[in-house]
Amino acid sequence: MSMHTIAQIKELFASRLDTLAHLLDVAEQHYPEDEILQRRLAPDMFPFAGQVALACNQPRGFAQWCAGQPIDNLKVDVASFEQARRHIADTQALVAAISVDDSQLDQVKRIGLGPGAYAERPGHAYVADYLLPNLYFHITIAYAILRNAGAQIGKSDFMRHLAPHVRKSEG
Questions:
Q1: Which of the four pLDDT bands, split at 50, 70 and 90, describes residue 163?
Q2: Class assignment of domain 6-160?
Q3: What is the pLDDT of residue 38?
Q4: Region 17-44: what's the mean pLDDT?
Q5: By CB neighbour count within 10 A (0-12 exposed, 13-18 middle, 19+ buried), where does 166 fall?
Q6: CA atoms of 142 and 130, how far apart (whole Å)
Q7: Domain map of the chain by residue range?
Q8: Of 24, 55, 88, 148, which is least surrounded by CB within 10 A?
């Protein structure tokens, strides 16, 4: 398991929220709000709007845990592009405000897993085994919904965090 520092986790969450905001930009530029926000990959999956909220809930929950606050998840019934943008911006602000040191990651976090189910994991495992997989899942589903709708996006839209590190080889 990779051991991230708080600073690395904050940067990871910030950059992935930027990717989510980019996907929302694509949705807003190419599709009617009421159509794309409610579009799903499968009938039993949350629509695009819900994927945005669920993706935000991962870094949001981490920031709230770090601040000693109860986890207050966003509702999945996002009704507009404006509300989705606000969720992303509010989550970015929560992440930026994280001010604990790395010892927080040694603390045990109780993770609610549905009615009557939970797991207790140290903070490092909470991030690696729960938050990051969930964050990537929901961003991936939002990306897939856009692709399924015909958006001309590709891996570079999903992997935007690598853009500052891309170099061109000579020859």
A1: confident
A2: mainly alpha
A3: 97
A4: 96
A5: exposed
A6: 19
A7: 6-160
A8: 148
